[in-house]
Specification:
Elements (H helix, E strand, L loop, with lengths): L1 E2 L4 H16 L7 E2 L2 H5 L7 H8 L2 H14 L3 H15 L6 H11 L15 H12 L10 E5 L5 E5 L9 H15 L19
Parallel strand pairs: 1-2
Antiparallel strand pairs: 3-4
Helix pairs in contact: 1-8, 4-5, 5-6
Length: 200
């Protein structure tokens, strides 16, 4: 799964996937996707979203720096530490957030420095391209890739769901998502959102 640490819909999808691991033969691996990179230079964005994106750089840069320096396996714990603070505690985005999340998972605190510079922006761009290439560059996060039964990659955006499905309900949603996403020629199933994301 490709996630932006600030995206509430990605956070819900990630927690759903961790539920799926408990009831299906699935192992989740996390990768970084930056909505700030994706929307850089894009015209016509609403002002609130542009402001939201301004503070999305730091968490994504910190996560990609951790992956580059310490390996992909660290992202599971780091994302949980960042996401818990961002989506549950409503912590302010900034250095204190990064330092406390890094300390919680035992990663080098100097990784927090990456949030404020563009040293890892090319790595972010490459991760975006890897995640969205099979899905569609005009989409975003959550983006999920699954090896299909025939060996072909099944890749899709979503699901966008709230609240977090738990237990067997999580497994049933997984089964259904794979069924539709794995259908040749299937592209879209959508309805208007009637609720805000709920991280509980």
């Amino acid at each position: 799964m490709w996630f932006d640490p600030k995206c509430p819909w990605a956070w819900i999808a990630s927690r759903w996937l961790l539920e799926v691991e408990q009831v299906r033969d699935v192992e989740v691996r996390f990768h970084v996707l930056s909505l700030a990179v994706l929307n850089e230079g894009r015209e016509g964005l609403e002002e609130w979203y542009r402001e939201w994106l301004d503070t999305a750089w730091g968490p994504a840069r910190g996560a990609i720096a951790a992956e580059q320096k310490c390996g992909n396996d660290v992202l599971r714990g780091l994302y949980t530490a960042l996401g818990g603070r961002i989506h549950h505690e409503k912590a302010s985005i900034g250095r204190e957030l990064y330092l406390s999340a890094l300390a919680e998972v035992g990663l080098p605190l100097e990784l927090a420095d990456a949030a404020d510079n563009d040293e890892y922006d090319q790595a972010l761009l490459a991760s975006n391209q890897e995640g969205l290439g099979p899905v569609g560059e005009d989409l975003g996060t959550p983006a999920i890739h699954v090896p299909g039964a025939d060996g072909e990659l099944v890749a899709f955006f979503g699901p966008v769901v709230t609240p977090i499905p738990r237990g067997e309900a999580a497994g049933k949603l997984w089964d259904g998502v794979l069924l539709v996403a794995g259908t040749d020629g299937f592209f879209e199933l959508k309805r208007a959102r009637t609720r805000r994301p709920t991280a509980d």
